[in-house]
Hints:
41% helix; 6% strand
Amino acid sequence: NLQREAAAHIHVQGLLDAGADPPGSPVAWEYLAWLHREFYEHLPEEFWWVENPETKERKKIVPGAARDGEVQVGQHLPPRAVELADYLGVFERTYDLG
Length: 98
């Protein structure tokens, strides 16, 4: 599984090195969605699932799409799904150096 994940990372890095990434700011949502889609589309579909540790509910990751539900990563609670667009906007405005 780690080799498959590494291969997906290498694929995306190859696209970046070849200049095959989309135009625009690498901190814009469209660019981040492209990265996410390219990475996940090169993983086996069994990697596309996340599970809520409390409810055991499983949700499928959609390559290139923002999540539409709540998640927890270890002890970390990331922003709520309804807040993602605002957070991504702040991220882009803060880090876009172009």
